[in-house]
Structure formats: C-alpha cells, structure tokens
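Inverse folding, one chain.
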C-alpha cells in the first residue's frame, strides 16, 4: 500500500500481486531521461509500478497519471500518435521499472554469490495433485527434465497437467548458491532461476512434448524477465540431463527462434541451455501452489501464440524416431497455452484421450 507521507525506500524484490509507488533518486534520473527523450512527461514520483500484468499495469491508479506528449513515431514509414496508444504507455512504464531493476539483470560471479547451506529444503512426501512421490528414487523407466520460463507457479501447473507426467516440483537451478531460500533467490545473489523439475513416463509423453509445452508457455525473447516479473530468477532456460535432451533442446531452440522471427518477433530467443545443473527444491509452500486452497491465481507468463514447428522439420539426424511426440494435435488444440494466461485451466491432470 502507498505510504502517507511518502517514505523513501528501495527494495531488491517487489511482492507479487501489489501496486507500490517507488521513490528514489534512481527513479528520478530514469524519469528525467524519459522526459529528455520526449516520450513521456511526468514527475518521477508520479509513477506506480504493478507486478501483476501489463493489463493491470495499465489500469493501475497512480497518484499522477503519466501524460504522453503527442508525437509522431516513424517505423517503416508509418506514423502514429503516442498519446492514443495504451500499449505505448504500458511499454514505457515497463521500461522504467526494468531500468530501476538493471542491477538485477546480471548473473553474479560465483565468488559474489551467497554461501547457502548444506541442508536440502524439506518438501511434502507426495505431490498434491498426482499423489505420487516428490523426491527420488523414482520408478524404473521414468525420466527427468528441468525447465525455467518465469514464475514457477504457473510453469509447474502446465507440466503436471500433461498426461504421462509422474510428478513435478518447483525449485532453483542454474546458479551457484547451494540450497537457496526463495528470498535469497529473489535477491539476485544466488545466480539461480526459478525452475520446475518434471518426472515423466517417456512411453506416454515424450521429451519433445515437454519442449513444445515449454516454448509455447512463455515468451522466450524477454531478457531476464517474463511479463512484469523482472530479474535473473525469472530468466528462461532448459537444463538437459542427457546428451539426447541437449540435442533436442538445441534443435527446438533454433526451430522456435525461426518461427518467432517469421511471425514478426525480431528480438530473438534469450533462453539458455545448460547441461547437468543441480536442481534445488523450493520451500513446501511453493510446491503445487496453484492447486492449493486460498492460492492467488497469479501468472506472469506471456505465451506468444506461435506453435513449435512439427518435429519432422527440426529432428536431429542422430536422434531416433522413438523421441517423436506422443501427444496428438487434438491435445494441443484443446489444452495448449493461450496468449494472456497459462493457468486458466482445471488443476487436475489431463486424462489420456481427453482431447
């Protein structure tokens, strides 16, 4: 909530699902730079930032609404009035917020990371939705995959709903600090990103199906962010546990990057691919969060609506056909992530044939 009178303060991490005014010399400098550029006219203390979504950000009621000067912006010979575009307003405010978070967009060197601890995080014995075990060893024949595409609440829900998934867990990976806490990860001083570990039966759902869900569940062109969640802990990544997974991940990366550029997204994919990283379980209260009573339906993912090209178009030459997708197109027509939100689906796992 806004403080009265205003209290100058800075935070390394903003709570989710809130609107908070920011007052700092850094904010004033960024606002001055925007004013100098001619894009926006507003006092630094006028801005309020929201960590909900672009839609909520545009609808938020700050103390003084930024007034955008009428100007013609030329792109490819076309012009439009900035003052009539809500999207321009949202983009400018997001840019302002990300400028304030610039120090959180760099992965720290190992020597600069927090020390962490040797004790692993305690998690429930059974998965809240699938009722299967959370921690290995897992039944024979199961395989493991690890993905990161923004806030892990929505990512985990997307994966546990896949038929053939045995269990899922949220956690942290890709960085240095052993067994970090959520607060430590949000500080940007662990090097980790929020991730989801997926244990699946390859006879029922293929790793290529998981890759398709991963790519289509977020916007991988956003650097160190997903929507209004900004920081190294929200970066996009794939963390293969085998050579075959790495080959498939790299091939799908190239295929989806080309598909996005063909659709008009020229920025290019920012997702990282790192092999055999250590996955650390997150706290109990984060596990299967969106399925639990009283959960806030929060999701910052930004699906692009662009499908991953057919497997036959990007299949590595030295990977067998047994890695071909198991889920039919009818499944994706009914259950695929949609632009706007990835969590507007039932919590239960999709049953085989429910498409």
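Residues assigned per position:
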């Amino acid at each position: 909530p806004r403080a009265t009178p205003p209290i100058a303060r800075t935070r390394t991490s903003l709570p989710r699902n809130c609107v908070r005014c920011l007052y700092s010399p850094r904010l004033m400098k960024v606002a001055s730079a925007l004013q100098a550029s001619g894009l926006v006219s507003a006092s630094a203390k006028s801005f309020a930032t929201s960590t909900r979504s672009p839609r909520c950000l545009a609808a938020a009621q700050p103390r003084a609404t930024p007034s955008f000067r009428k100007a013609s912006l030329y792109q490819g010979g076309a012009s439009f009035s900035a003052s009539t575009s809500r999207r321009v307003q949202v983009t400018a405010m997001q840019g302002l917020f990300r400028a304030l978070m610039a120090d959180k967009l760099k992965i720290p060197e190992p020597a600069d990371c927090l020390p962490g601890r040797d004790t692993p995080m305690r998690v429930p014995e059974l998965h809240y939705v699938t009722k299967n075990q959370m921690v290995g060893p897992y039944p024979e024949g199961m395989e493991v995959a690890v993905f990161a595409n923004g806030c892990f609440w929505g990512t985990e829900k997307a994966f546990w709903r896949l038929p053939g998934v045995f269990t899922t867990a949220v956690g942290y990976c890709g960085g240095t600090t052993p067994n970090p806490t959520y607060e430590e990860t949000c500080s940007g001083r662990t090097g980790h990103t929020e991730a989801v570990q997926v244990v699946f039966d390859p006879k029922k759902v293929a790793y290529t199906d998981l890759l398709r869900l991963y790519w289509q569940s977020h916007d991988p062109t956003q650097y160190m962010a997903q929507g209004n969640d900004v920081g190294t802990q929200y970066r996009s990544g794939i963390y293969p546990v085998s050579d075959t997974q790495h080959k498939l991940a790299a091939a799908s990366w190239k295929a989806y990057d080309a598909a996005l550029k063909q659709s008009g997204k020229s920025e290019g994919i920012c997702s990282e691919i790192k092999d055999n990283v250590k996955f650390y379980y997150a706290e109990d209260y984060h596990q299967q969060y969106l399925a639990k009573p009283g959960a806030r339906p929060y999701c910052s993912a930004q699906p692009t609506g662009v499908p991953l090209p057919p497997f036959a178009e990007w299949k590595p030459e030295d990977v067998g056909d047994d890695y071909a997708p198991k889920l039919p197109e009818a499944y994706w027509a009914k259950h695929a992530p949609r632009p706007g939100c990835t969590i507007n689906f039932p919590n239960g796992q999709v049953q085989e044939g429910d498409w």
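The CA atoms of residues 30 and 96 lie 7 Å apart. DSSP finds nine helices and twelve strands in the chain.
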